[in-house]
Each structure stands twice: as structure tokens, then as C-alpha cells.
Prior knowledge:
The protein has 176 residues and is α+β, with helices and mostly antiparallel strands.
Amino acid sequence: MNREQKAVVVEDLHARLAEAPLVILTEYVGSTVLELDSVRRACEPSGASFQVVKNTLARRALDGTDKGSLGEHFRGNVAVLISGEDPAAAAKVYRDQVKGNKKLVPKAGFFDGDLVGAKEVVALADLPSREELLAKVLQTLLAAPRQVMGVIQAPARDLVYLLNNYSNKLEAEQNG
């Protein structure tokens, strides 16, 4: 790889790292190219990318981003998962890929402005996805008007029940 190619790789990686809400570093000692490729393909539908990058290029790409603290973790065989817009979806895909594979070991991550350890990286998968959070917010917003309507309709409903019961009582007195 010549200097121009390296510059393009660093520039591309820098742009993706600067925008990503979640970055996960993984050791892949003993993994085959096919295993890494299957992880990469599994990450694509969630909008995440998984790739092996030279450590020196990755450290250069981190310069000028808020994720600079990840630089010290680029030692040895390290692959990088860079999430798309939904970090929870990327974390879930990552957890599923790492679960049965002893060759892929989470090393560190960066989420929500903080450096996180290996255990926290896997725990991120338990967070609800963006769609789940939006559904909960919508559910909460819709619950209040429903409750207000129930309170507003209660007196009228109670009056209907009262009149219906009184009507039934009058019928019973006339018939009996």
C-alpha cells in the first residue's frame, strides 16, 4: 500500500469514526478470513461495518476525533466495528457473532462519549434499539390523551348507567 492509498484509508476511517456513536475493538487471534468475512456480512444489514485495519493507520484516523482514547488499544490483531445510526442494533449483531466464537474477543469500545471495557461492550447489546425507544415514547405520548378522554367520558358514561339502572327498576316495578 503506497502513501496515497494509506491517506485515503485514513481519511475514510477518520470520517466514519467521527460520526459513529459506537465503536468496538475486537481481537481476532486465530480467526480465518472466512470467519471475519462472515462477521462483516452479518454487520452490514444493521448499518455497521466490521474491518481489519492496520493499527498505525487506525491510530492516525482517531486523531481529531473524540474517540482518541481508543488509540492505546490498537495493539496486536485488532478489528474495528463501526456502528451506523443505531448503535444498539450494531451491538446486538456483534454480541450474536462473538457469542459462540472464542477467537473473537471484545477488547474495548467507545459509546456515548466514554471509553468502555470489554464487559460493557457486550452489555450494550441489551439496550433497546432506536425503534423500540421511539415506540415507547409514542406509547407514552398517546397514553395521556387516552386517560384524559377516559376522565372526560366517565361522568356521561356513569349517567347512562344510572339512567339504565333506573329504567330497569321502573320496568321491574310495573311488571311486578
